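Sequence in, structure out.
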Amino acid sequence: MRAQTAAAPENEPTSPTSPLAPYPPILPTESRSRAPEFYGFVAWASTYLLFVLYLLWAFLPDEYILALGVSWYPNREWSLLIPAYGMTLVLLTYVAYFALALAGTPSFSDMSTITDSKTHLPDAARGAPGAFAPYLAHARPDAIPEMYDIPLGLVNRVAFGPRPRSHPHRRSRSSSGSRSTS
């Protein structure tokens, strides 16, 4: 039974006992179409042919083009306009994608900038008094916390400290009047 399941070392390309690949290499057993290679070559060759024709049309004098037997061809100004329009189209594509990204971005006052439909908050944190109690319950060293998203206000409080309170009797000097020094 073991002899049937074990493959012969010469049939395996590499193995721990024979880490080198065999020479000459083993040919693949499956055959695949070579059509993409031919299509790629035809596309490459036709691109170069069209580019050479474009250069001939753009730079040859009219007498040479007529001598080749071509009786009609577009005006020469298109040899400059086509690349210029192409570059303009490429640049406008970048501008259009940038504008679409800006249009799809919510404003800073929108709640979707800090939360989304996949937010997982504890039940007590949804507007009840003492909303952060579920987070504090998991602060014990032996606790295994559940998976919750931490509210942005709690993250800011931990990272930046408590919010400074403004005192009504403290006003800026610029609003109380200007002093003149002489």
